[in-house]
Design brief:
CATH architecture of the largest domain in chain A: 3-Layer(aba) Sandwich
Helix content of chain A: 25-40%
Mean pLDDT of chain A: 92
CATH superfamily of the largest domain in chain A: MoaB/Mog-like domain
Radius of gyration of chain A: 23 Å
Order of helices and strands of chain A: EHHEHEHEHHEEEEHEHEEH
Number of domains of chain A: 2
Oligomer: homodimer
Shape of chain A: elongated
CATH topology of the largest domain in chain A: Molybdenum Cofactor Biosythetic Enzyme, Chain A
Strand content of chain A: 25-35%
Strand order of the largest sheet of chain A: 2-1-3-8-7-6
Chain lengths: ~250, ~250
């Protein structure tokens, strides 16, 4: 291969929130983070949604931080009693947690005099040794501890924090992709598609059924970090689709 | 307490799909299953999204089936080479997998003569000892193996399968909930809310910040399996909100 390959850069995502598990809130952060990471060449490899329980957060964070290049978390860093993510991260890393002077200064400057209440001071609790993540939306910072990035759960605040984190992330080779819409149910092309996948092992070929008004069609998505491989595999898929449709190409 | 308490019934959900992790497809099944289970008194306790890799599916399924009353999976049971969930479940349970005569009969009857191709026959591969789950949308069945329910990933097919599964699930006491909208940022009520939570340990009080046009408000959700507990805790929250707003009640 002529193209230089970098090692894949991977990520895990821990969504903290009883409200997602109960159905009260519909998650919007997973799809956003997936798009964001794909765009900069990082593979989101696993997501866990866990309740507001310290031992569950600790288990998920410790498993994923050992397994992937980066870990992201969302949720549980507000001022109320059910916001326990910062304490859970301190427990996961075995470090103390207390009000952080940098975070205290940011929040003190943010609130009108006399309104930086003890509840709000809770948002300044940061595990020892963490770097702050700027929150240009609502001041209360996130933080980075080792390879774990702790962000707010409110989507637009999480997105703001991701923008602040982005320059610090080292992306891998970008994953390129090509979609092919096929006006046939996937079972009509499945066998030949498996052969194309076998012949193009450096590509990843996904087949996604769609149904509308009782008509089944398929979207095939070819993905590769190499544009050469992507082009070859896509051509092979297009040839098999043309053959299945009875067209010559 | 006058009300009889049942043991909580819990569930884990494994979403199988590279397409969710890459961002190409935005998941709709997690929120749907969360609502569905909450409605019948089952606590969705953990969700994992894993790629189309056998060892990842096996790990998630084996961990969650030991931990929760029920496990559900979605995705990866179609006819193409990237559909590996049935094989992964067989591996997780250490049982053989082959074309199942019941599934073969269903699919044979579904397709026009001569169109039940080898690729489509792949959808009849079911681990030994599993029960089939009816798919009234597109015939190809899901299956139940032990406490694990294996469903399609296409949302309306998953929903059809859930309807077929529902009568076989034993729900717990339904979780009741009450929402209170508070026109204040959550930090204004956080301390008193923590005390209410402490005084009502049989309830679960969540606080969810909202922001619109730069104005922060809060939704408080009180949840309990006991209507008595729910009523008492809700009254206490309403009293603290009224006090914070300077109203008498």
């Amino acid at each position: 291969m002529s193209e230089q390959e970098k090692k894949p850069v991977t990520a895990g995502f821990v969504v903290v929130g009883d409200e997602i598990l109960s159905g009260r809130t519909k998650d919007k952060n997973i799809g956003y983070l997936a798009d964001f990471l794909t765009e900069i060449g990082i593979d989101l490899s696993e997501v866990r949604i866990v309740p507001d329980k310290q031992e569950m957060i600790v288990e998920a964070v410790n498993t994923l931080r050992a397994r992937y290049t980066y870990v992201f978390t969302s949720g549980g860093i507000g001022p109320t009693h059910d916001d326990i993510t910062a304490d859970a991260i301190a427990a996961a890393f075995g470090v103390p947690i207390d009000k952080d002077p940098r975070a205290m200064a940011i929040l003190e400057a943010h609130y009108p005099p006399g309104e930086f209440t003890p509840a709000r001071q809770r948002m300044a609790r940061i595990p020892e040794g963490a770097d702050l993540i700027e929150n240009s939306a609502s001041a209360a910072p996130g933080f980075r501890m080792g390879n774990v990035h702790v962000m707010a759960g409110v989507p637009y605040i999480m997105q703001t924090m991701l923008d602040a984190i982005a320059p610090t992330l080292e992306g891998g080779d970008k994953m390129h992709s090509q979609s092919i819409d096929v006006p046939l149910p996937e079972s009509r092309i499945a066998e030949k598609l498996a052969i194309v996948q076998e012949n193009h092992p450096k590509s990843s070929i996904g087949s996604y059924p769609k149904a509308k008004d009782g008509v089944f069609t398929t979207q095939i998505v070819v993905r590769s970090r190499s544009l050469d491989v992507l082009r070859d595999a896509t051509s092979a898929v297009e040839a098999l689709v043309a053959a299945a449709l009875g067209k010559s190409i």
